[in-house]
Specification:
four-stranded mixed β-sheet; mainly beta; Immunoglobulin-like
Amino acid sequence: MVNPTANNEYGFTTGNGLYEENTEATVTATAKKGYKFVNWTKDGEEVSTESSYSFEVNEDVELVANFEIDDNAIETIKAPVVNIYPNPTTGIVYTATESNIKVYDLQGALLQEKTGNNVDLSAYPQGMYLLQVNGEWTKVIKN
């Protein structure tokens, strides 16, 4: 019996099952996004650093695939700067430059779309609205 397991929830394994003695088995470790495979261990000892590991089956084998966070996969996400004013507003909201502006309610319904440097919210009830300005999102409060 070959039984590969993962040391945590950062990845998963394949290849478990019954194998005839003296036949080759292959186990595979696959890391989830943002994580990486480190090695295979048997009884705490490293047996391979390859994510796909083949070996001859001579006994029941418990293998552990070890995964960890991939520091190279972590991206710094900067919040886009969308300059709109005034916010909160009672009506017209301005952008710093000529922009493609879309106004959505909080349910995601598109209420208005225009190109320019302002959008008029005075016809809408008080509340919060989502603005997409040149593809970047921000929120505006209408008083």
